[in-house]
Every structure is written in structure tokens, then in C-alpha cells.
Design a protein that fits this description.
Layout (H helix, E strand, L loop, with lengths): L8 H18 L1 H6 L15 H13 L5 H13 L5 E3 L18 H15 L1 E7 L9 H7 L4 E6 L3 E9 L2 E16 L6 E15 L2 E12 L5 E3 L18 E5 L13 H24 L3 E5 L3 H10 L16 E5 L6 H15 L15 H37 L12 E3 L11 H12 L5 H10 L7 H13 L5
Antiparallel strand pairs: 1-12, 2-3, 2-9, 4-5, 5-6, 6-7, 7-8, 10-11
Length: about 475
Amino acid sequence: MSDVTFQHPEYAKNALLWQKIDDVCEGEDTVKSKKEKYLPRPNAHDNTLENKQAYNSFLMRAVFYEVTGTTLTSLIGAAFATDPNFKFPAQLEHLERNANGAGLSAYQLAQTGIRHLLKHYRCGLYVDYPDVIPARNLAEFKTQKAYPMVHLLNAVDVINWDSVIVDNQKKLCLVVIREVISARGDDGFSKKDTEQYRVLRLESYGDYESIYSVQIYSKNSKGAWEAGIKKYPTDYNGNFWTYIPFTFVGAVDNSDEIHKPPLLSLTNLNLAHYRDSADFQESVFYMGQPQYYVSGVNWTWFDEAKKRGIYVGAKVLLPLPEKGEVGITQPDPNTLAREAMKDKWDQMKELGARLIEKGSAAKKTATESNSDDAVQHSVLSLCVVNMNEAMSIALRWAAKFVVADVDLLTKEEMLFEISQEFSKQGYLAELSRQLYEAALQGRSSFKSWWEYNQSGMFPKQKYEAEVINIEAERDGTINQ
């Protein structure tokens, strides 16, 4: 009996790692909600109520520093410091505002994709089209209101896959996607989530050796998984697809192989630092407060003093018997846990969390800072390059549903490209002055100087375009 919920062995091996990274990136509330999963209970064999209550206090005092999540956010911010270059034919203009049918634009899909890559080194892009006959012209296309959609899939939702060799090319022949469908309750307010599986296959059909099919599996009234009607999508010209319009996206390459997530080492250190923090805060709580003591007294005096009230502090007289003495004691500081935390903090900075401590960059030479950037950006660059390639491929698949001949579209007509210039130079007054002087001398355009003052970045344009701007400013035709 077939089991649509079967998980690929590589998926099963990595799913728990992905979940751990997701939890750490979510922050302190999520990590603490998992309790003993990330912070073991002292004396775990002791199941008494007192020990459980002591653990709750132990957990509450622990401090989780959100290093991994902050590093992730900073890297995504670096990748999207400038808007991606996005070009598309008129039939795909909807992708700029709603690429996946759920209101996310192509830009937002790409941002989420980079987030997945940094966390998991893996995500998926899948293109589909409503179950209608593809429109034959733009007017019919708009009337039909059926648009090709690009779906970004988290690695945890692609549970199974397989490949075959067709004409010396490796092609995906199976992709199983877990989906959650939400439906409003009968009361109009409640919501119920239902799980289903979308199965994409490359299989023989009639006279065709290998064509693409889609089938939905959902639970029937008896709770068993039941296959829906199998569909065979066609492109704009009515031809069946000879491949599955799905691609994995990775940071090393866009194959179906799973590689070690780049944030895994930082995640493990972040959790180790969290456990050290719990030990340190525990020692602070129990040993950080001073302890008062009285010597040379008997129990009779102590009982009488308790009745009167014992007060310690400035301007308070504490009467003592002859040879009685009051004092204060405090244990030596426990630095072991603190030192362990400091060591792990330094290691986390070396692994990419340099933005957490604001003053750290000032302690480094320019060469050292550039080297740190290069280490982080080498991972980010790979993610960006592969996301650009995958998004461009997905665009062509989407166009295949609405354009007669996709091969005629050039990169000037259809392109998605995230910039790889992560280190923005920022505004420099001296450079602005030099641009202005060059414009006065006719060697640069005032337009370039103005754009630099507005954005802090040197304008990106071809030499020929700059020459035209200079000549237009010289003869006064720039606004004509």
C-alpha cells in the first residue's frame, strides 16, 4: 500500500536540525517554550513537585541572547540594501504585486527565499497555473483572471523527491509537497487547518513517455489518504510539460542534495551560551546576595529581638548583649559560568555575529574588518547567486503559460537579479565635492551628482548614457 506521507531519508535526517535553527531564530520566547529540549533540568531523575518548580525558576532566570536571529536579519538586510533588478513581459506584471496568489510580491518571495537558504541551505520554487485553458492573447488573459503563480516552499514542506535520467539529463520525477488548507468554521469566526499533499510526477501518459502531472491527496471520511483527480497541465500552446516546473534552491548549488545549514554552528553556540547563562543566573540568585549574621547571642535574645523586629541599615540601632557582634558575609564571585559565556560570545562573533556588539568593529584594522565581511558575504553571495538563477528559471516557467515562444524573450525583457554589492559605501562628502567640481568642468553630469547626494551610492549607468546627460546639460535640452 502506497504512503504519500513517506519522508525521504535525507529529509528525515535534516528536519530536526531545521526545526532547531527555526526555533533559535524565532528568539527567546520560542526557545524557552521548548523547556527541557534546549535547557536540561537539573536532577532530571527527581520528578517531585519541588524540583519541577525549581526548574521553572531556573528557566525563567536564564537569559537567551538572540544572536542567531539578529545575524540572519542583518544578512538579509545587506542583500536587499538595494532593490532587485526585475524585468518581465506585460503578461507577468502581476508578479510585481502578487506573485504567489497570497499577496506576496516577487521581491518578498526572494527575501523569504534568502532567509530559508541562510537557515536551511534549501528551499523550493514551484510554478503552477489555474485549471483553465491558457489564454491566447493579453485581453483574454486579463478577462480570464487566471495568472501563473510562483510559490516559494520551505524545505520542511517538501518531504519527498526522486530523479531519473532522461536523454542524458537528470530530471525530477517526483516531488511531494505538504500543504495546509485553512477553512472558516460554521460560526464564521473559528478556523480549522487541514493537511493535504500535492504530488508532482513525471510519468508516461498515452503516447507520451514522460509528461508532468499533478495530483492532490487528502483524507477521506475514514481518515485514510485518498488520491484526487490527476491533472496534466499544458503550456500556452497546448503542449504537455516534459519536466516538472519545480526547482530546489540551495547555497552550494540548486540540486536536490542537502548541505549543512550555514547558521547551524552559530545556533549550537547560541544554545550553549543560553545554558551557561542559566547556570550563571542561578549562581547569582543563590550566592549574589549578602548574608547577615550575629554572634555572641543566645536564643532568648534572638526570640526577643524577633518580637521587637530586627532592622538592619543606616540610622537603625540594633542592641546587642555584651560581647555580641553583628556582621555580613558574602561568597567569592563564581566566575566559571561567566567565563564560559564570554568564550562562547567571542566564538559567536567570529561565526558572524559581529553586529551584536557595536564597538567591536573599532577594535579591528580595516583589513580585518574587510576579511570578516568577506567570510559572511561568501555565504550570502552563494545564496543570492542561486536564488537569482532559480527566480529567473521560475519566471520563464511562468511565461511559458502565457507567452507563445518563451525562447524569444531575452534577459533585457525578463530578469530577476538581487544585487551582490552588499557593502554600501555610504555618503562621502569629499566624493560629492569631486562630483560637483567635475560637473562644473563638464566632465560629469549634475544628474549624477544629484543622484549621489540623494542615495549615497554612485549612479549605475553606462558611459554612453553619462555622455548624453553631459551634452544635454551643456546645450540645455535635458528637460525637453
